[in-house]
Structure formats: structure tokens, C-alpha cells
Amino acid sequence: MARLTEDRELRARYHTMRWALNMIEEETENAMDQHRPMAGAHEGYGLLLEELDELWDEIKLSKKDDPRLDQMRLEAIQVAAMLVRFIVDVTGRPQGVQESDPACRL
Questions:
Q1: pLDDT at residue 5 in the model
Q2: What is the Cα–Cα distance from 52 to 62, expressed in whole angstroms?
């Protein structure tokens, strides 16, 4: 942790990571509220591919004078949210992890 407080660039990256994780959590909650759970691993994989393809489309559209960073960021957040949904809907919590575990807090 000492290195983190000394290295401004690393500290800024950690702040960006926290922001990104919050955005992913928000996107995941929205997706869970709007859509039924994934029916299984095959469906989850298909949804992941769909989101990943949308990110790839934005990457291909980006140009030096128009890098489309906002669009790529949004698609990357959606890919990450689908990964989280895959864990929640398809694999669930690992055996032995209880709702009272600090990692499960709401």
C-alpha cells in the first residue's frame, strides 16, 4: 500500500479501477433487473459473445482523430457486466461462501 500512496500514476489508475467497478456493478444490476437469469452456460456464452462483438465493432470504428473512447468504455462495461452475470446466473457462489461473508455484502 505504501507504493500506492507514493506513486501518483498508480493511485490514479486505482481510482479509475474503483470507478469502473462501480459502473460494472450498476450495469450488472440494471441487466439483472431487466432480464431473466441466463438459462445456462451456452446462453451465457452467446450473450458474452454478442457484447464482445459490439466492443469489437467500436474498436474497428475508432480512428486516430476519433478514438471513440466513450463508446468503447460503455461496451467494455457491458462485457464485464455480462461476465458478472455469468458468474451469478450460471456458476453461483462457491460452496461454503455464506451471505454473511464480507465479500457478499449488499
A1: 62
A2: 15
